């Protein structure tokens, strides 16, 4: 901590010398004439900006001949004015108009985030991407939003290529993701390994380039009654850019300090990103087209050099995958009249990845020495194509605002394996394979109506709508060489080593339809008192109907203190991937390879055991909080929450064909329930998807923001924290497995569910800006995490604190250079024996990740 305090002192002292002379001066006020503290003032078309002080005043040195200033603050409408001396800028309260994307959590067109009855985080992506070293959306949110958790997985097959993310410690599939208020499709991948998201599907946030995003809204509250399935933990709404006549571009490069490599390299994991965004205005009615191109490429990290007893290294290659990502996204609006417009947005993302699989050493019976005399390290490749497009029209229908849209999305994931072999083919085996894959598609037709009655008490907002969604899921087989047994060496383990291909018997095509209808209302009973309610009915063709509701209220006790609370029921439909996925794969347990069958819901083995068809998860959520704002320099929100989920869909513990014989330690006996069936299928273990657990989460979110003038600059400070405790109330078995709770969903699998988030995550950020120079210092404390290793012994990952430091300087009115480091003091999770971890490395993917210190530089242009 002394090092951190010293870093703060040095940063503040170093920037004080960069004070600038006054050229542009003014004061920013609200509608009542009170100063707005911390409002952002930016010279248009440049990186030149500042913020107002405790009197709402600002000074800024102009860098253009005829400066235009853009003034903004949360809760107020953006205003553009001509630069000068003695300016007086009065900001109007922000309200959502027909042409704007609403603040998530409310369908009222007059609701600002500051008076929402539910907790909402607004994250300005321009501010975040300018001053931090993270480049993709998942990692940006991981270090900005304490209730959000995402780690890069390694040794986790598909999850190496699609980072699972969670909100408030629940599953990745229990958070709904919207883009411009429209449902984003999920990834086709179901996570099988790793410490987060086991047995879950989720939405791949990284398909959207950060350069295309204006802001991200995180609703930390159950919202299934408002938005439908998946919104048990909350909602993430990604709002795309609408700017015009402004070109932004950046080039970024960084690399990791290569500790724990097996060679002499000093740096690895090189990460390069380049992007460009530009918007074109069309006419005078607000029509525009805004487009983004983004390219990102990161190289492997290598963290295998951790000794493991007498056998040396568990794996020769272990670390982050190599990934190449290309994305193009567009956001547009075309005015039809003063009261109607068409909107179109969406894009495409192409990703290719190489991930390390487990080492096959030279004497391994899965190796063919004639091909690999020294053994080999298979590489699992991915080819992922993600496409989405939304088109709709917004118009007036009498006094109602009407929104009709169609939303199509597709995610296709194809596996490959290289630097591998099929041992049953002997020396004639190929070394690369097409291993098959899967695809998920959705099409959503939605209609929404909204009307505001200003004369009913202090205002009544009504909304109603309907939605029809169709989803398709397919799993397709790989080439025969990737899965079949051949006669050259028929006793060897068949299939491509590292990742055996999907077989024809795994193939499936499935679809389902969903119809939903909702109504909600918000009534301002008095000026300080708001009440709201929502009701939603949904019907799924594969499991039936559900009805959910939400009630909420907000009361302004004083001008500075507001109380708020919500209660809701919710649900999550099991994904088509969870219902239909089927595969035989290789897992390494205590360093030994084991063939595992993951059997779909209607597999003969699943049915013989009496495991019922998957049904929806249900939830009850409550949120009670307060918000306090003293002037506009200090704000505080505190929200406590309770979330109870029944019938959670989980991936069961592995059932073994053979178990140790209690009468003979050197022998094993068939499992009396499932052993014969598994041996007949040629596998040693089996797992299933089942509604196997009820959980309860109790937590607290705290956010404190402060803005102050320090010297001639502005210091913005924030503390944000999430405290979360998840308890598994009950494990439910069924059929022939009744009474075998520890076998069905045992302590090890339960530990992975509980480790979806650390018990607490605390973020302290100090952002100081003066003249052309700014510095950002961020400390994040990740609490301890408890897992259970393959040896059934506890694995206690101690708490860790990471420190990020960024220094930025405006080279010209259009160019800014930033340099810095994330995880400045090179902190790693607690080391463990790789033979007992889930990944085969010295760490499971917990807390802040396992790559260590990252150095970066970025050059940003704005014209």
UniProtKB/TrEMBL annotation:
<keyword id="KW-0798">TonB box</keyword>
<protein>
    <submittedName>
        <fullName>Iron complex outermembrane recepter protein</fullName>
    </submittedName>
</protein>
<dbReference type="InterPro" id="IPR037066">
    <property type="entry name" value="Plug_dom_sf"/>
</dbReference>
<dbReference type="InterPro" id="IPR008969">
    <property type="entry name" value="CarboxyPept-like_regulatory"/>
</dbReference>
<dbReference type="InterPro" id="IPR036942">
    <property type="entry name" value="Beta-barrel_TonB_sf"/>
</dbReference>
<dbReference type="GO" id="GO:0009279">
    <property type="term" value="C:cell outer membrane"/>
</dbReference>
<feature type="domain" description="TonB-dependent receptor-like beta-barrel">
    <location>
        <begin position="348"/>
        <end position="824"/>
    </location>
</feature>
<keyword id="KW-0813">Transport</keyword>
<keyword id="KW-0812">Transmembrane</keyword>
<dbReference type="InterPro" id="IPR039426">
    <property type="entry name" value="TonB-dep_rcpt-like"/>
</dbReference>
<dbReference type="Pfam" id="PF07715">
    <property type="entry name" value="Plug"/>
</dbReference>
<dbReference type="InterPro" id="IPR012910">
    <property type="entry name" value="Plug_dom"/>
</dbReference>
<keyword id="KW-0732">Signal</keyword>
<dbReference type="Pfam" id="PF13715">
    <property type="entry name" value="CarbopepD_reg_2"/>
</dbReference>
<keyword id="KW-1134">Transmembrane beta strand</keyword>
<comment type="similarity">
    <text>Belongs to the TonB-dependent receptor family.</text>
</comment>
<keyword id="KW-0998">Cell outer membrane</keyword>
<feature type="signal peptide">
    <location>
        <begin position="1"/>
        <end position="19"/>
    </location>
</feature>
<dbReference type="Pfam" id="PF00593">
    <property type="entry name" value="TonB_dep_Rec_b-barrel"/>
</dbReference>
<keyword id="KW-0472">Membrane</keyword>
<dbReference type="InterPro" id="IPR000531">
    <property type="entry name" value="Beta-barrel_TonB"/>
</dbReference>
<feature type="domain" description="TonB-dependent receptor plug">
    <location>
        <begin position="113"/>
        <end position="235"/>
    </location>
</feature>
